[in-house]
Amino acid sequence: MLLRFKEQIIEDFLIPSFTLNEGEIVIIEIPNGVEFQKISLRLIEIITELCSEIKYAEHFKENSFLNKLFPVTIGGYLKGCNENSIYKNKIYEIEWIKPKIKVNSIAGRYRRLLSLYKTLTFTKNIIIDLVGVDPFGGVEIFKILKQNRKENGSVILFDSCNEFEKDCTNFIRAKYMGTDEKYKDYNETMADK
Fold first, then answer.
1. Are 54 and 47 in contact (CB under 8 A)?
2. Mind listing the pLDDT tens digit for each residue in 25-71?
3. Which of 51, 73, 99, 137 has the smallest CB count inside 10 Å?
C-alpha cells in the first residue's frame, strides 16, 4: 500500500477514508469554484506529507518580472527533468509543439500535459487536477493516467465531474457537512449525477 488517507473534514466537506496502491487511480470529486482550490491545496499538502513518493503535477506559473520580459519556453521548462524518462520528450509528439514555443502562449490543455509529463519524469505516483483543461483535453490526460497505471503508477485525480467514475479504481465523492445555504442541496445534487 502506497497511501492510507483517514477521513477528514476540509472546508466543511467530508473527504472519506481511502487507500491507494500501486497501479490504482483514485478520483476525488470535489465542488467546483473557490472551494475546489482550497480543498485540493489542503489535500495535496496532507497527501504529500503522508507519502513522499507522491508528487503533485503543478500548474505552470510565471511569477517574476524577469519571466515577463523573457518568458519560459517549453524546452526551458523541461530542463532538469530526468533525462532517462520516456516522458521527457512526449510533449514533442504533438506535431506543432517545439522547444522554443513560450509556455504561456499555449492553451490550458497543453500546459497541463506539459506539467504532467514533467512530473512523470520524476515519479510514477502523482496527484493531478483538470483545472483549465477542456473536456477533450481531460479525456486525453486521463488516457495518459491509465497508461501510467498499466506501468504500476498510481494517480489521485481531483475533479468536479464524474465522467471517469466507471474507469477508475476508487471514486470518492466529497460530502458537504456545513450550514452554508449555497451548498444546502449539494449532497443530493451530486448523488443524482
1. yes
2. 999 999 888 889 999 999 999 999 999 999 999 999 887 777 777 89
3. 99
Number of Cβ within a 10 Å radius of residue 51? 18
State the residue for C-alpha cell 500548474.
59
C-alpha cell at 66: 524577469
DSSP state of 183: G
- Predicted local distance difference test score (pLDDT) of residue 66: 76
Q: Under DSSP, is residue 100 helix (H, G, I), strand (E, B) or coil?
A: coil
Residue 155: DSSP 8-state: E
Residue 21: what residue type? N
Beta partners for residue 176, in sequence order? 13
83 grid coordinates: 533525462
User: How many other CB atoms are found less than 10 A from the CB of residue 22?
Assistant: 14
